[in-house]
Amino acid sequence: MWLPGGMSSRFAPRALGVEPFLAMEVMERAFALEREGARVVHLEVGEPDFPPPPAAVEACIRALRAGETRYTDSRGLLELREAVGRDHERRFGTPVAPERVLVTSGTSAAMLLVFSLLVEPGDEVIIGTPHYPCYPNFVRVCGGSAVLVPTQPEEGYRLDPDAVRRALSPRTRAIVVSSPANPTGAIQSGETLRALAALGPPLVSDEIYDGLVYDGAQVTSALELSDGAYVLDGFSKRYAMTGFRLGWVIAPVSASRPLQVLQQNLFISANRFVQYAGLAALRDGAPAVESMRLAYDARRHLLVDGLRELGFRIPVMPQGAFYVFADARAFGNDSRELAFGLLERAHVGTCPGVDFGAAGEGWLRFCSAASEASIAEALERLGRALPVPA
Ligand SMILES: Cc1ncc(COP(=O)(O)O)c(C=O)c1O
User: Fold this and answer.
1) What are the tens digits of pLDDT across the range 51-103?
2) Top-tier CATH class for 54-285
3) Whose CA is closest to 363, among 322, 323, 312, 317?
């Protein structure tokens, strides 16, 4: 490699400070075991085992055949942005103009755009913990730092607005909320979100698990509370379209243009033919979403009951998403060692709780989007492989 003036190669500490995403690390090790012939039960990554809605697959194939293979407007196809706006209005009653919608290559790309827009080196972003592992890393990549505010299982993982107020500083640029949340499945009440929205900094609201709720739980969108909120959402979870890499951000009007410019530079646009799949999913996917939701509800009970029988402590029933966050300290305090050990010994993939912050150490997260047969198989294998509870 050519280096000017004999400078030695150096990677940016900001990049090297990014932690590995342990759910992916477990999955990648599981893939290696599978290449050697192992049959792994995958409960490590948040991925539905259902196929996407057939209409989405068909639309994608049709688009490819019709030559829909070029860039789109950086903000996404206008029809899709209109459909996203209508879909948000259908779910929450808040009208959303297409000017506020930017289509992205997954919710992850939406996060990068939004944090790039909001965070300068030295800035802070408040995040309730346990948290989705990547949030602090997005902030870190932008030169900022995450200020983690603990939430407690005994309080249903409520993000306490008073605790958040105490964590505010002149450098606070955003408050991240996610409801339903990964890894806890917790839902923040409308009242809590309203109090958080009133604190000042914009809410960055990850609504990717909206629609996946149980026992009649209600979700409030941050947009119902504040025009200044950023909503991150996508097709991965609700529509079982993880590999399509398609999502969106709904932003305040004042942010639309700078986000568009960032998208032009960083990504140009989301995949064109995939955007047609998204359009079809929004138009025709609702029945598939509802039948998946009902299946996740049943799987959630199977997994929670089975894990409790094995000796895991699950203080609260998850109300949404498709995860069970379980205290595994009866089996050891090092969640990384436990998860990788179970993968090697039992060929069951689980995610170390420490991925979700220090408060998750000693816990494991299980994805309940696997089939009932897979969950039953995993429970049986775990029963054989787990150390005797302490
Ligand atoms: C809370 C949360 N946000 C975002 C993502 C990433 O979504 P996408 O596949 O749309 O990039 C995940 C994936 O697990 C998630 O759990």
Assistant:
1) 999 999 999 999 999 999 999 999 999 999 999 999 999 999 989 999 999 99
2) alpha beta
3) 312
pLDDT < 70 stretches in the chain: 1-8, 390
- Write the CATH number of the domain with boundaries 11-42+287-385: 3.90.1150.10
For residue 238, the CA-to-ligand 1 centroid distance in Å is: 11
Residue nearest atom 13 of ligand 1, based on CA coordinates: 46
CA 108 / ligand 1 centre spacing (Å):
6
Can you tell me which atom of ligand 1 is nearest the CA of 321? 16
> DSSP for 336-371?
HHHHHHHHHHH-EE-EEGGGG-GGGTTEEEEETTS-
Cα of 389 vs centre of ligand 1, distance in Å, is 33
Sheet containing 363-367: give its strands across: 323-327, 363-367, 351-352
pTM: 0.95
Residue with tokens 């960055």: 204
CA of 109, closest atom in ligand 1: 11
Q: Where are the domains of the chain?
A: 11-42+287-385, 54-285
